[in-house]
């Protein structure tokens, strides 16, 4: 049964990107992130109560809380960059760059935390880096409403950078708190940050103007994220992490498949080879 939950985690994680893309065709990506985070926060606290870690809230020390907040701010920045990149770029180009955050995390952990890089991790870093490069083709992207989408790559790399910082800061902050409770606290910070961004950028009125169809897709993307978390947790309960983690990371295959079916985004031979290298690198890093 745990194998089905692991596959479910990868499936819902991959579908999240597709649903989000459908929800930000006309809706501002910052507004969409703020709305979506409400749904994700609900699921995050469901996880907390499922594992019974809510009682640890009173025992969290200031240092741990500080790093959790910093990690939440990094997560918020990553999500804002990621959904902006999805709005103005192709999914098949944005997702590989975002997945490269794994490489950045390993490098930052080596530089800042002194964690050694093993042989297979080194091989994985090279393969994922090469695969990401191959999947990024230099051709004109069309942004929303037919505008230029040249900024998608910058946003995508920003997403990867902040995602890696999330992992580093979260690793420090998670030492004194149960992981699901830490994730819920971080998500709460993301929610506050996202809505502050909505207000500061003067997009509050846009919240009421979100098309009903896109609102449904935005909420569904949040539900998909929550479902992925729940499946991943159940899979880890009964299955080996060495098997569950690689299956979850292969959500990129689900995203690419659905991007073809929904948006008709095709892979060239070059990007197909890049995808194969990313998959091989992900598996190598998790041996």
TrEMBL record:
What are the protein's UniProt keywords? Membrane, Transmembrane, Transmembrane helix
Every copy of the EamA domain together lies at 2-136, 152-286
Any one Pfam family match given in the protein's UniProt record, by short name: EamA
Tell me the InterPro entries matching this sequence. Answer: EamA_dom (IPR000620), EmrE-like (IPR037185)
The domain of life for this entry's organism is: Bacteria
- Ranges annotated as spanning the membrane: 30-52, 64-86, 106-130, 151-169, 181-202, 214-235, 241-263
Regarding protein family, the annotation reads:
Belongs to the EamA transporter family.
Looking up PANTHER family in the UniProt record yields: ACYL-MALONYL CONDENSING ENZYME-RELATED, SOLUTE CARRIER FAMILY 35 MEMBER G2-RELATED
Return the protein name: EamA family transporter
């Amino acid at each position: 049964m745990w194998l089905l939950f692991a596959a479910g985690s990868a499936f819902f994680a991959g579908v999240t990107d597709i649903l989000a893309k459908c929800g930000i065709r006309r809706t501002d990506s910052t507004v969409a992130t703020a709305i979506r985070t409400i749904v994700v926060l609900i699921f995050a606290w469901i996880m907390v109560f499922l594992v019974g870690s809510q009682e640890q809230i009173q025992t969290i020390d200031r240092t741990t809380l500080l790093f959790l907040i910093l990690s939440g701010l990094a997560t918020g920045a990553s999500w804002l960059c990621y959904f902006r990149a999805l709005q103005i770029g192709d999914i098949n180009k944005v997702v590989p760059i975002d997945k490269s955050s794994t490489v950045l995390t390993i490098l930052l952990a080596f530089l800042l935390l002194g964690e050694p890089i093993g042989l297979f991790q080194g091989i994985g870093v090279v393969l994922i880096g090469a695969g990401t490069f191959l999947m990024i083709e230099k051709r004109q992207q069309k942004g929303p409403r037919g505008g230029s989408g040249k900024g998608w790559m910058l946003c995508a790399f920003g997403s990867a950078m902040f995602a890696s910082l999330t992992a580093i800061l979260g690793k420090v902050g998670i030492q004194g708190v149960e992981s699901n409770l830490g994730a819920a606290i971080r998500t709460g910070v993301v929610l506050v940050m996202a809505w502050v961004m909505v207000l500061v950028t003067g997009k509050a009125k846009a919240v009421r103007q979100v098309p009903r169809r896109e609102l449904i897709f935005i909420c569904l993307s949040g539900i998909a994220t929550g479902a992925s978390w729940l499946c991943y947790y159940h899979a880890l309960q009964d299955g080996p992490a060495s098997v569950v983690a690689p299956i979850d990371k292969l959500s990129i295959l689900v995203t690419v498949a659905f991007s073809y079916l929904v948006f008709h985004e095709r892979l060239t031979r070059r990007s197909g080879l890049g995808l194969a290298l990313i998959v091989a690198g992900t598996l190598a890093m998790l041996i």
